[in-house]
Amino acid sequence: MPGSTPASLIAEGPEVFRAPELVAGPRLSLRRQAWRRFRKHTLAVASLFILGFLVLGVVVGPLLWRVPMGAIDLSAMLQGPLLDHPFGTNGLGQDLLARMIFGGRISLAVGVAAMAVAVGIGVAVGAIAGMASGRVDAALMWLTDLFLALPQLPLLLLLMYLFRGALRAAFGDEGGIFLLIVVVIGGLRWMSLARLVRAQFLSLREKEFIEAARALGASRARLMLRHLLPNALGPVIVAGTIEVANAIIIESTLSFLGLGFPPDVPTWGHMLYDAQQYLDSAPHWALIPGAAIFLSVLSINFIGDGLRDALDPRRVI
Amino acid sequence: MDAERLQRMIDRVKRGKLSRRGFIERVAAVGLTAPLANQLLAVAGIAMPTSSGIHYTPTKRGGGGTLKLLWWEGPTLLNPHFANGTKDQNASRLFYEPLAAWTPDGTLKPVLAAEIPSVENGSLAKDGKSVIWKLKQGVKWHDGTPFTADDVVFNWQYAKDPQTAAVTAGSYIGITVEKIDDYTVKILFAKPTPFWADAFVAANGCIIPKHLFAPYIGSKSRNAPWNLKPVGTGPYKFKTFTPGTLVQGVIFQDYHQPNRPYFDAVDMKGGGDATSAARAVLQTGEYDYAWDLQVSWDLLKKILAGGKGKLAFASGSAIEHIQVNFTDPNKVVDGERSSIKTTNPTLSDPIVRKALSLLIDRKSVQAYIYGEAGETTANFLNGPAQFVSKKTSWSYNVKKATDLLDANGWKPGPDGIRQKDGKKLSWLFQTSINQPRQETQEIIKQACKKAGIELRLKAILASVYFSSDVGNDETYPKFYADLQMYETEPPSPDPGFWMQQFLSSQVASKANKWQGRNITRWRNAEYDKIYAETTTTLDPVKRAAMFIKLNDLVVDHVVVIPLVFRKSVGASIDGLMMQLSGWDDDVWNLPDWFKETKA
């Protein structure tokens, strides 16, 4: 059956059937093979470095750059990049580097957390639908279609408006908004992942190795968790990286509309919003967060691209 | 200065021994403002001089070419009684005139009136229940019909008729207008009314002709063809009108003021936005005047460098201020937060409010955010000059604020935030989304942080924050926060209506659907008492002193923290002689506008 065996290659579990004869040369672990394929994707490797640099920057940045992000110095407002303010200052003379570091933590954390929520829901719904078939499958797919049909931005605004107050009271200003943004963005972006996982399941569960596992007496849960899911995970990882980028952009949109974090929390999207009126007089203020969003989204997308290649065993190196 | 000495000086002015100017200089030395000095003289029976502030030099009518005005919000109709916002008021004012207009210093200037009513010329009743207007004779409508008292009486009947649905109705409903003779009308008030100059004055007072509008009174009012083709008494006759785009007028040769107007025609172009309007005057010089430039100061300064014109300021008394919530926004009582049955756990302490007012760096807010379009102030009531308190002051002093809090038991807790009896100085501070406001919030937050006070900032979409939707919890009258900031402006030079917003009876609550105007929910018996007196006191000097006292009460109790009072800004091309009044339309003295020719 052409194309049937390779599908198992992307996983690493011991029960997975391996097909070493497809790989030329010495026998390599699956992980090494994937890495070799990933390395071939130059843009993905470069993106990995850029993203790594950004993440490192926002994580260890505050240890190296100790200027407080809130300190106002009105004598130094709208300053271009100089030695004492490497990224320049904003309209209140606040240091943009310190704000970029702080904002990056939020923006990247929102991206990763929202992706985790979306992947979590998407995989759960997709897996159950793919395994169960019949009525449960139909119901879950209706639900998925329903969510796909919802207009996202108006719904997002409505949810923000309805729950902002309650969550603010329960988890504090920033915690509440963070939770809300993550849950709302994640909760509105899982549908494509669910369909992807379900499609994978439907095709995988007819494969011989599943039949073999079933013949050996594996329970449905074991089949799902040990056999099907690891094999279906490749495309999910790829789709997940795209969700990270999406979440960063949606957070920027919300901040832009004033519905995101409180106005004094400098997420990248919010900095961009503040800077828009000063594009002609202080372009650095907009360009720096703009470039950071651009670079992180682009590099995450390229990494996803690279991962797709790397996790596709049909690709011969 | 004691009353006796003041009286002696007034007598000397009366006898001609002391010039008016000398008098004003002497009283200014003891802290009285010029308008207040003028009022003193007026009360003593010495008439007030009227000045438009422009020294009008042209010696003949016309010859000035076309005056090109740019109103970035285009007018949509030309009946002053239906004016939807100031754009329509301004466009109507090209053709129509009121009996009198408000000058920049808040005094009245006669337009269609022969003189300003006063107690000493017998036209203002001592009991404040009536006023007599003498009309200027020889005024003609654009179609040649003479202007008479019938027209004035008709405007009252027209505007007060609920079927007419005039936006100016508020100025005409509570009064009765009688014709005494062809050039005299009498306004009767139901009760003593200190502020008598509302009907027939300024924007709401423009007079439309009876002989054309009489068939269109009441429910037919909107069908009048003249709503779009005005026939007035103004310096320009109607030529063409494209709603929202262009109004054109040509010189009226029979205009009632000598040698006016200077321009042969006027074009009022509508559309665009404030920034491009500023550029069209200041950078390219395509237009002579652009109104209401709501442009950030930085940007405006750059455009001004274009060198074609200058900025014109109208000093009204719009005030950007912070309001303190005297009730608890976090407790729900009978289905509403910020209920009058609660008290704010921290802000109800006067020491805390005092410390907060010391933490607000008004100078920086003014200098770096509002620029020359704003002035720092300690007062809530900033104009006209006779109502402005001299006793108040403000300072920015973090040390003093922390000392004050320390001395009164507000000590920093383990998290650095000051507290007392378990109550933390941590407040929610809300305003609308508007960059200058977010920057102000940030400046105040950082100063409070230094003093151990935590401010949590919230910015709400302006369309939500200022909406009148009762179901929305984020509107400013609901005030579900500890502090909030916005701008408000008195609707007329008389502060009577405006100062109602601190009356106990006006508290905004669920019961009155948050229509009550007292948003801080501050209640003070002394304030209520003095306010009640202002409604019946007719002596302008005493009444002004009462309003000053009301302002001082509000400021001393830190009910609101005034930040800057803002002027509205227009741009005029070099050589155009004009003047704005903060109390009237931008074109309030259009007949006096002229261009200086370069020698």
Automatic annotation (TrEMBL), chain A:
Keywords: Cell membrane, Membrane, Transmembrane, Transmembrane helix, Transport. This is Peptide/nickel transport system permease protein. It is found in: Cell membrane. The keyword rRNA processing does not apply. Residues 104-304 form the ABC transmembrane type-1 domain. It comes from Acidiphilium rubrum. Belongs to the binding-protein-dependent transport system permease family. The keyword Ion transport does not apply. PROSITE patterns: ABC_TM1. The chain crosses the membrane at residues 42-65, 106-128, 140-163, 175-197, 232-262, 282-304. It comes from the Bacteria.
UniProtKB/TrEMBL annotation, chain B:
This is Peptide/nickel transport system substrate-binding protein. Belongs to the bacterial solute-binding protein 5 family. One of its GO terms (biological process) is peptide transport. Its main location: periplasm. Residues 109-507 form the Solute-binding protein family domain. InterPro entries: Peptide/Ni-bd, SBP_5, SBP_5_dom. It is found in: Periplasm. Keywords: Signal, Transport. GO terms for cellular component: ATP-binding cassette (ABC) transporter complex; outer membrane-bounded periplasmic space. It comes from the Bacteria. One of its GO terms (molecular function) is peptide transmembrane transporter activity. The keyword Disulfide bond does not apply. The keyword Protein transport does not apply.
